[in-house]
Write a structure and sequence with these properties.
Strand order of the largest sheet: 1-2-3-7
Number of strands: 7
Structural class: alpha+beta
Distance between the termini: 17 Å
Radius of gyration: 15 Å
Oligomer: single chain
Largest sheet: 4 strands, antiparallel
Shape: globular
């Protein structure tokens, strides 16, 4: 889901990240929400190709609220927050404008 950052309810950062099996990331956001993000679909794009290397992938860490691997590879915390698979309740339906969900559900938005 592509979300305009101006529609986010507040600054979204990452508190912690863990490399999981099958090139997934376990993420805890600064707002307390948790999710899992599958990185594999990005492995054919630009700098993310390097993350096919399991050792590099597992070196993931948080730097200033951003998921980072090295000086060249990082991924936006806002992107992860909007596109991860939520653990538990899907907080996005509660925190984002309805327009994002009617578009994703294939319904007309009226705009």
């Amino acid at each position: 889901m592509v979300v305009d950052v101006r529609d986010l309810p507040y600054y979204i950062g990452v508190r912690s990240v863990e490399a999981l099996d099958a090139h997934r990331l376990g993420i805890v956001f600064t707002d307390g929400n948790r999710g899992v993000y599958d990185m594999e679909p990005l492995f054919d794009s630009g700098v993310f190709r390097a993350l096919r290397d399991e050792r590099l992938f597992r070196s993931v860490h948080v730097s200033f609220g951003v998921v980072t691997w090295n000086d060249e590879i990082d991924i936006s915390s806002e992107f992860l927050w909007t596109d991860c698979e939520p653990m538990g309740e899907d907080w996005r339906r509660r925190l984002l404008p309805e327009k994002y969900f009617t578009e994703c559900d294939g319904e007309e938005t009226g705009s």
